[in-house]
Amino acid sequence: MEKQNNQEYLTAVQAAFGADVLAHEEAFGMLNIEMTPSRIHDAIQWLQQHQDLSVNYLTNIAGVHYPEAVGREFAVVYQLHSWKNNLRLRIKGYLPKENLHITTITDLFAGANWMERETYDFFGIIFDGHPDLRRILNMDDMDYFPMRKEYVLEDATREDKDDRFFGRNNNEL
Amino acid sequence: MSQEIKDILQAADPANVATINFGPTHPSTHGIFQNILKVDGEKIISSEQTVGYIHRAFEKLAERRPYNQITPITDRLNYCSSPINNIGWEMTVEKLIGVDIPKRVQYMRVIIMELARIADHLICNSVIGVDAGALTSFFYPFSEREKIYELYEEMSGARLTTNMGRIGGFERDFTPVFHQKLQSFLKTFPKAFEEFDSMLARNRIFMDRTKGAGPISAERALSYSFSGPNLRAAGVDYDVRVMSPYSSYEDFDFIIPVGVNGDTYDRFMVRQEEIRQSLRIIEQAYKNLPEGDYKADLPDFYLPPKADVYNNMEALIYHFKIVMGETELPVGEVYHAVEGGNGELGYYLISDGGRTPYRLQFRRPCFIYYQAYPEMIKGLPISDAVLTLSSINVIAGELDA
What is the mean pLDDT of residues A160-170? Predict the structure, then answer.
């Protein structure tokens, strides 16, 4: 059978999930699909079980914080890999900061357990149905989520490292 | 789970169950991580890991550092093979900015990365020997690893945290001393390595100790997103160098060794064979090392020589711009993976065009496969748990980031 490419993946996902595919792009050769967060679990399950698409490997899960994007402040990024077609793809779901819930995929990939715990630890995204959602790298009694952008790392008084002088204006968070 | 293990677990009498700490500072954890074991006599009924003792917030740090200053952070992930981490990161940035890397640089990188893989596997395998009670086989390969460290030193000035290479190539070309040392390494290493191999590979005591210790099936390993030697020991031939070749790996002839049972012995044997294959790759790359420059033409990222900075206005401007982080970067998201000592080491980089990454995530193979550890040691004696821990090669730096 011939190897499937990005376009065929996109068409297949769009055909199966229709309006839940919110956006898509190809970045550096890798397919990005933005989906309704509540449907991501089903989409990954469908991709995993699909005969031809056969997405069999979960590469990683990443959280991202976009404080300026109102209503879609947090992103959960799933990077998946189909070995059959040697194709990597990214599925993203954007969550509003008031409702940071998304369904766990630990039932599909055992390895998602710690990846989701790490994302919770750093960003406070809650994976519903996760068997043991606790902090993993930070202390249990930490009361904030350190990777969020409002926690500026260090040397806030150092002028030579001020982002405003280097073309980025997100210092007033 | 075999019937025997099931019987052990069922027979466990709550009155006999003891809770003990394995770590955080235990000689055989080879790093700081804790395991709370529930044991019935010698048999492990369940275990729970605590990680994060040396968490240094690399991902947060990276959001505050210009791209060239992130390379030293990557040193401290898997510090047994820092050059692979360094070069993996450099290639990620190169992918983002879209630059053609000269063939010579690619081959040089392959040589350095495979040397790093040899050093990494040598340590891991000799440590398996230590945990099985064989100290000689631990000291023996150290003189060989020392030679690799001398090669690093020749290329970067450092031995452990190498900060090897630059975005766009290397800081310097292979020096005459490097050539001489590499040639002598290629000549002497195979014999020394086979001697090391003969101490353990067919050693009856070692085999009895390691066979069946900490096995995992291919199916479970895949579900846990295993990669690298641990996955291959379970019989799955996934290797990033072959699946998505980078840095001209497609030019070289080498095989991917796989195991059958996914136990400690198979992991040991897979690493041993990978060392031989790495050596083959180095020989091919060194023999066919192309002529050319040791760096790409990339003035926006590659620091000019200091002498030029003092004498040449253009070089001074570039120097200033690089040091102050004023270089313009494309906006975008890129994922780049390399085959690290422990498996697929990935960099997920989101750039918003600013001088630092907007978000940088490290896909750290250790962190991902270490979660399978309780499943692997269930029903085994504590001594097997120790062996399993060293054979999956959990490196605390990479685990905790």
Answer: 61
The string of pLDDT tens digits covering residues B318-347 is: 999 888 877 888 999 999 999 999 999 999
What pLDDT score was predicted for residue B283?
94
Q: Which of B358, B278, B372, B339 is nearest to B78 (CA)?
A: B339
CB nearest to A79's CB, from B61, B348, B353: B348
- Give DSSP secondary structure letters for B122-146: HHHHHHHHHHTT--HHHHTTHHHHH
- Going from the N-terminus, what domains does chain A have, and what CATH number goes with each? 6-166 (3.30.460.80)
Chain A closest CA to B134's CA: distance in Å?
Answer: 33
- Flag if B368 and A111 touch (Cβ within 8 Å): yes
Under 8 Å between Cβ of A28 and B95: yes
Going from the C-alpha of B338 to that of each of A143, B51, B123, B368, the distances in angstroms are: 35, 24, 20, 15
How many residues in chain B?
Answer: 401
Contacts of B335 in chain A (CB under 8 A): 28, 30, 59, 79, 88, 90
Residue identified by tokens 């996109």 is A10
Query: What pTM was computed for the model?
Result: 0.91
Sketch out chain B's domains with CATH numbers: 3-50 (no CATH), 58-400 (1.10.645.10)
Q: What is the pLDDT of residues B284-326, one digit of tens each?
A: 999 999 999 999 988 888 889 999 999 999 999 999 988 887 7
Q: B142-156 and B103-131 helices cross at what angle (nearest 10)?
A: 150
Q: What is the mean pLDDT of chain B?
A: 90
Task: Summarize pLDDT for A55-112 with one digit per residue, the tens.
Answer: 999 999 999 999 998 889 999 999 999 998 899 999 999 999 999 999 999 999 999 9
Q: Which of A110, A136, A153 sits opposite B63 (nearest CB)?
A: A153
Contact B325 A167 (CB under 8 A): no
Which residues of chain B have a CB within 8 Å of the CB of A83?
238, 243
Chain A residues in contact with chain B using a Cβ-Cβ cutoff of 8 Å: 27-28, 30, 32, 56-60, 62, 64-65, 77, 79, 83, 86, 88, 90, 109-111, 113-115, 118, 122, 136-139, 146-147, 151, 153-154, 160-161, 163, 166-168
Q: Provide the ipTM.
A: 0.89
Percent of chain B with pLDDT over 70: 97
A38 in Cβ contact with A103 (< 8 Å): yes
